[in-house]
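Still learning. Show one?

>
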Amino acid sequence: MKDSVYAYILKADIKHPEIVLRQAILETGWFQSKHLMKRNNLFAFRSTKKYMWFDTWQESIEYYKRWQDANYTNPEENYYSFLVRIKYARTTDYIKTLKQISLKRSEGAPLPVKKPAK
């Protein structure tokens, strides 16, 4: 699932795709959270205090793109700092935990950085 999510993040033209993939991994516990996965909510987005529902996990990525476009307005700002400032990172170790998530494939090759051709 990780590779499919990453490919869709790239397709959606989301800024800082590797960090965003790490967010999805952290929020869903490597896509194992029954609570979030049945809602197709890869990023634990909430409306008021309840987790949002999406028809597909792709829709949650599209929502993230709209959220990012509306909130991340200074491309010079460090994205980790942005997540803290916007209060997406609600725990003191959130950023540290994100940085520790390895995105390497099982055979050891890193995920591609460039966007696939359209």
The longest helix spans residues 57-71.
